[in-house]
Design goal:
Protein name: Transposase-like protein
Helix content: 40-55%
Number of helices: 6
Low-confidence stretches: 87-97
Shape: globular
Region (Disordered): 76-97
Domain DUF4277: 3-82
Organism: Thermacetogenium phaeum (strain ATCC BAA-254 / DSM 26808 / PB)
Strand content: under 5%
Order of helices and strands: HHHHHH
Largest sheet: none
Radius of gyration: 13 Å
Mean pLDDT: 83
Number of strands: 0
Pfam families: DUF4277
Distance between the termini: 42 Å
C-alpha cells in the first residue's frame, strides 16, 4: 500500500508553479538518455522538501513509499545518487562553482 498523503494536494500546486518547465528552459539537457530532465528532478526534490523532508540519501525510498510512480509516472530508482546534483555523473557540481 502506498501513502500518498499530502502529495495529492501538492501536485496541482507544484504544477501551477511550472518548476519543471522553468528549469528545463534555463538548464536544457545536453543529451536525452531517456532519464529524468533537470526540471523533473528539481520538481521531485521540492516535493520531498514540502512533503517529508528526509536526507537525500533516502529520496528513492521516499518516492517508493509515497507513490511517486503513480502520481508522476517516475520510477523511484530514477531518483538515485547519480542523478541528483553532485552525483557522480550529473556534472552539476562542477558547473555551479
Amino acid at each position: 500500500m502506498k501513502f500518498i498523503g499530502s502529495l495529492y494536494l501538492l501536485k496541482p500546486f507544484i504544477n501551477s508553479l511550472v518548476i519543471r518547465e522553468i528549469v528545463d528552459r534555463i538548464v536544457p539537457m545536453e543529451r536525452d538518455d531517456g532519464g529524468l530532465s533537470h526540471g523533473q528532478m528539481i520538481e521531485q526534490l521540492v516535493l520531498n522538501r514540502l512533503d517529508d523532508p528526509l536526507p537525500l540519501l533516502y529520496l528513492e525510498d521516499w518516492a517508493e513509499i509515497r507513490g511517486i510512480r503513480e502520481l508522476y509516472g517516475i520510477p523511484p530508482n530514477n531518483l538515485n545518487d547519480e542523478r541528483r546534483p553532485g552525483g557522480q555523473n550529473s556534472g552539476c557540481g562542477s558547473s555551479l562553482r
